[in-house]
Amino acid sequence: MAVEGVRVAKAVHEAELLERAHVVGVAVGRKVVHGRETDETCIVVYVDHKEDEVELSRRDRVPRAFDGVRTDVVETGRFRALELLETVAMDHTRRMRPAPGGVSIAHAKVTAGTLGILAHRRSGEAVILSNNHVLANSNDARPGDAILQPGPYDGGRPQDAVASLAEFVPIQFKERDLGSLGRLFERALAPILAPLGLGLQRLPSGKTNLVDAAVAAPRSGDLVAPDILEIGRVAGTADAARGKRVRKSGRTTGLTQGRITGLDAVVEVDYGGKSAVFRGQIVSDILSRGGDSGSLIVDETNHAVGLLFARGQTTTILNPIGAVLGALGLRL
């Protein structure tokens, strides 16, 4: 079936898929059979973990096909935005002046993320582009707050401020932090509700997001560089396509490469006790770890494709670069 037909089938059945236990996302991708990717376009269903069908209630089993479009269930774990790990790319955590894309940066109350790129507003003003949860502390920051390079986790101190938070796109969260008592009840009730086909992690049809993005204004023009470490200058933007080769330079894992594996994804992302739903996202198998959030993803010709903001066990989630630039009125 043509890609457009698969997109339609996904849109029609997306809500019912997202209500099933363990489902954390849905996208358009290619069917994998016996570990090999085929040319068949299908509905990819991401789950936090796989279970045998006999262990699932009838309502939680993912059908093998919808309207003639086959499904493919992929185990990814939960998608997470906040999970800082030790770096394996030491050069990316150093204090650098001017600071290029790909290095450690963060709001003064955040651990560390990645400086994506030096973008420009319509007025011509140069600004640092990264994630909301890196520069704006997941909505809990105010314009003017200090942005440190390197981030606090990597030794950044007030004297290492290179920019001030300028603007962010608010993240619409689906729930409050349950707190320790609430999480205790959640864990206690989950085994009882699961056999009945009732789960405590359900994706809503209401508040959703397109981007996790923010910008900061450099405090001096010589503090930030337009290049990205190990990548160089960005040549512009490009649309994502399944199978497209991409790469990124990030604070934790440095320069890594991969492919686009899914498009038009809707995913639930864990922000450490609260979660948010994102639609229209890009899925990639590019290696990333906590702290790589904010990395700019480019193709083989150095055209920007997306902004990295979350990851699963074997997958990375990107905001489409067009949505990011449009939301903040930017150009590269």
Descriptive overview:
The protein is mainly beta and 332 residues long. It has a domain at 90-171 and 208-331: Trypsin-like serine proteases (Thrombin, subunit H, Beta Barrel). It has 4 helices and 22 strands. An 8-stranded antiparallel β-sheet has the order 8-7-11-12-13-10-9-22. It has a 6-stranded antiparallel β-barrel with strand order 16-17-18-21-20-19. Strands 6-14 form a two-stranded parallel ribbon.
Low-confidence blocks of residues: 193-205
Overall pLDDT level:
90
Largest sheet: 8 strands, antiparallel
Going across the major beta sheet, what is the strand order?
8-7-11-12-13-10-9-22
For this structure, what is the CATH homologous superfamily of the domain at 90-171 and 208-331? Trypsin-like serine proteases
N/C terminus separation: 36 Å
Topology at a glance:
Elements: H1 3-18, E1 23-33, E2 36-47, E3 65-66, E4 69-75, E5 79-80, E6 99-101, E7 104-107, E8 113-114, E9 117-121, E10 126-130, H2 132-135, E11 146-148, E12 161-168, H3 179-193, E13 214-218, E14 224-228, E15 236-237, E16 245-250, E17 254-270, E18 275-284, E19 296-299, E20 303-311, E21 316-320, H4 321-328, E22 330-331
Parallel strand pairs: 2-4, 5-17, 6-14, 15-20
Antiparallel strand pairs: 1-2, 1-17, 3-4, 7-8, 7-11, 9-10, 9-22, 10-13, 11-12, 12-13, 16-17, 16-19, 17-18, 18-21, 19-20, 20-21
